[in-house]
Automatic annotation (TrEMBL):
Enzyme Commission designation: 2.6.1.2
Protein's name according to its UniProt entry: alanine transaminase
Origin organism lineage: Eukaryota, Metazoa, Chordata, Craniata, Vertebrata
GO cellular component: cytoplasm
Pathway: Amino-acid degradation; L-alanine degradation via transaminase pathway; pyruvate from L-alanine: step 1/1
Provenance organism: Urocolius indicus (Red-faced mousebird)
Source organism, top-level taxon: Eukaryota
Reactions performed catalytically: L-alanine + 2-oxoglutarate = pyruvate + L-glutamate
Amino acid sequence: CKGPGVCPSGRTDMALRCAASLAPGRQPRGARLRRSAREGTVRWNSAAKASAVKINDKASREKILTLESMNPQVKAVEYAVRGPIVLKAGEIEKELRKGIKKPFTEVIKANIGDAHAMGQRPITFLRQVVALCTYPNLLDSPSFPEDAKKRARRILQGCGGNSLGSYSASQGINCIREDVASYIERRDGGVPADPDNIYLTTGASDGISTILKILISGGGKSRTGVMIPIPQYPLYSAVISELGAIQANYYLDEENCWALDVNELRRSLNEAKTYCNPKVLCIINPGNPTGQVQNRKCIEDVIHFAWEEKLFLMADEVYQDNVYSEGCQFHSFKKILYEMGPEYYNNVELASFHSTSKGYMGECGYRGGYMEVINLHPEIKGQLLKLLSVRICPPVSGQAAMDVVVNPPIPGEESYSQFIKEKESVLKNLAEKAKLTEDMFNKVPGVHCNPLQGAMYAFPRIFIPSKAIEEAKTHKMAPDMLYCIKLLEETGICVVPGSGFGQREGSYHFRMTILPPVEKLKILLEKVKDFHIKFLEKYA
């Protein structure tokens, strides 16, 4: 009511009743309600405060979730790439922003393979297609090439409501899975690929975690064992811990450029059989953090070993475009398996993984990826689809980015020349930085670096004096962690200790990305050299 004589209904009788209700000293009903509500709030707040004081006088109730009550498998997870050293780097960055003086002006995060964060420029064609998919009104713009528009239209037609914002099928957009299958056939020289065996994923990590999740079973000595290389990418050990599986290490041969030796696989397998049921063999090719590229004979030996021992093969091939050394060539496990004949090709269960994050693309943030899984039991295929459906679908923008990776411009299309120029420039630049890093490290006393045949990291072995090892023990940390923390504190360079990837006892390493621009990389390497020499002098 707005007062006497004013009634929203326009009725006189209603207005008179309102006027009568407004006796002297009496407020409108709405005002009384608002005041009452305010007073109630005041009274309630006072009571709550009094109650809170009483509660605070007593001991606080114990938290439901504590380190003791939490999932022990999650607590066991470690991921060195974003571990304590990176948290320390973040603290130092905050101090620099506050004006706290350091012997350096910036933190160089060489701990992770994040290409664009290190200054690598995006591939124009990929961004054009994703932009068109994201904002279809741009399809009418003359600023975009027709070959990009053609791909964007095809992707959008595969999306619900022609929108990148809709869910996709859990296995991924059908036309993109078709493009992935076509890419694999071209890459492998005509080896057939079935879109039904392609699963689009949230980066390669999602696919690897999913396959391991469906493989793990049993308890005690029958618990699933997963054979992983040492050094390894810490995703593997992290997922194995999270799932409560058993990690079975096989060591790469550092003296032979981090080669994989089947005799070492057999040693690892036989040892693992005494305490678990090893049924999974993980391969990273090209290697992370070690950068080795496996030759054809090595891959054949591994496949034969997996076939002979009835092991499920997982081939992490996200660095397949990153091969630099002369005489080295990427061979996919799928291709070699096919060429070894039907006895192998029709029986060995193989999951292969790829991603938008590495290669020449470096599109880490899109979280695009795929896995091809062959020779799965039909009933297990259904179980895999069920598991994938729980996470609904991978990011659709990441699926679109993956499509451009497997369906790039071809000769004769208007974007081809720019695309191939950008791609080759990135890979040439990485090859130069790989050689530069190897050469500069091998000039430093007490440092040895194997050739960086592929991927995007150096994993040099470093000599750590006994005094430094003893100091590390007093701090209850690995010697190479002490080394990396001091490197960070004195130079601002953030690298990851080799202990986070695994290494032979008594050897020490760190992993460093080669992604910074050449001039910054040279400065970084010079700083590491100067630090290492001072470190040796200090602890000699």
